[in-house]
Every structure is written in C-alpha cells, then in structure tokens.
What we know:
Blueprint (H helix, E strand, L loop, with lengths): L11 E3 L5 E3 L3 H22 L3 H21 L13 H15 L15 H26 L4 H47 L4 H19 L4 E5 L5 E6 L7 H15 L28
Antiparallel strand pairs: 1-2, 3-4
Helix pairs in contact: 1-2, 1-4, 3-5, 4-5, 5-6
Amino acid sequence: MRIYTRMGDKGETSLIGGKKVEKCDQRVETYGTVDEAISAISLARSCVKREQVRGYLQKIEEDLFILNSELATLESEKLKVRLTQEEIKWLEKKIDEITENIKLPKDFILPAPYLSSSSLHLARTVVRRAEREAVRLKRSQNIREEILMYLNRLSDFLYCCALFEETEEIIKQAVTEISKSVKEKVSNEMKEGKILFKIAKEIIQKAREKVEEIRKPMCIAVVDEYGYLIAFERMEGALLGSIELAINKAKTAVLLKMETSELHELAKPSGELYGINNASSLIL
Length: 284
C-alpha cells in the first residue's frame, strides 16, 4: 500500500465529509496546529519524570484527537463523540490539584534548563497558537465555544505541569548535591561516634543553602535508617501541604533504598511493589 495518493498535489485537501478546500484554508490551519500540539505533548510525555503527569498527557492527546475531528468537518453535529464541559472541568480540577503542590511565580519566567519542563513549555506555546487559530476560524465559521474553552484551559494546565516537573527536577538535583557535600563528613563523624542529630542539622543547613540558591522555599526532612524523623525545617513560604509530604517521601526513600521518583514502574499492576502507593505514610 502506497502512503502517497497524489490527490493533494494541487494544494487541496478533503475535510471529513468529502468537501475539498485549499490547504491554506483557516480550518485546515487550525486543525493542523492542533495536530502540532498533539505531537509536542507526545514529546513532553516521553520527557516528563512524574508518572502522574505522563498519564494526564496521554488522556489529553486522546481528547485532542476528538477535538480535531470536529475541526476537520463542517458537520460536527453528526459526530458521535465530541468534547464536552466534562473535559474542561477535568482540566480545571487537575490545575487546582497541581497548584496546591507548587508555588506559582508572580512574574514571567524563562523555561527551566530541564528537558521535562521545557518540553511542556514548548507544548504550551503550540497550544496557545492553536487557540489563536481557532479564534480566527470562529470569525468566519461556526465552531463551538467548548473548543476555545478547552484550548484555553489546556495551555494553563501545561504551564502548571511545567512548574510541577521543574520542582521535581530541582529537588532531585538539590538532594544529589547535598548528598555529595555531606557524605564524607557524615562518614567521618559517625566513626567518631558523634550524635546523629548534629549530622542531621548539618544536612538541613546544606539543604537550606541550596534552597536559598534556587529560590524555591521547601520543607526539609531528615530521617534515620529506620525512617524515623530526626530533624525537620519548614522554610518561610513553603506550602503547608508539603510538610507531611516531605517527611513521608524521606521515609519511603530510606526504607526502600531508592528515590521515590524511581518507584512508579514498580508500583504499577505488573510491578513487584504494586499497591505500595496505598500503604500508610509511604509516598511515591
């Protein structure tokens, strides 16, 4: 079977339903831009670190395919499936959930130097362009308000996801740097029999220095080898919801001897640790 048909060689394409239009038609421009957005979101899905965000993006790709089928026809009322207010409310709910765990900046930001968050910012800008094209289309042709609303919410959602991923990357980098800086000193002081609390204070001080450097107020928790809390500090501006989260993530990492970001695959139904995310006080 050949992939080329030669039917578009004269600069025309067919909409769903058979009507032929020029490839520069505003309707084609709009659904073509949404197609770009789907590809950009697919790229972001392969780059993000959080399994939670990866699942969200997959659902959004599927929703955009439905949205695009409506843009690609002049008879959308005949389609069996169309986006509704439910999909818009789903985006709003996820935005609210994510913003409870991040600190929103007051000023414009440059995309971070992380592939995960930068790919989401790229997807966000393509969605914004798709929204602008949809607005242009609405000037001359009838499209439902739900399409514009969905694209508008989606760009906000991707922005929040980018900040969410950036926070995860920053924390991971900070933990790595802190571990390197205190590892040798901790080892020496343990040999000398110095109290564990003093070492924990040293770790918190190093963490505070790193947090002040990256300007992301956080809660810092240090636990012993059994997962019991030794020292804790909540910096000014850190989210209240991150208090218990920081303690439980530290406990989980110590007891399972791996970073919590590495546990998602093992926690899937086919994984060795399936169901661990339901265990009391363990956080993935």
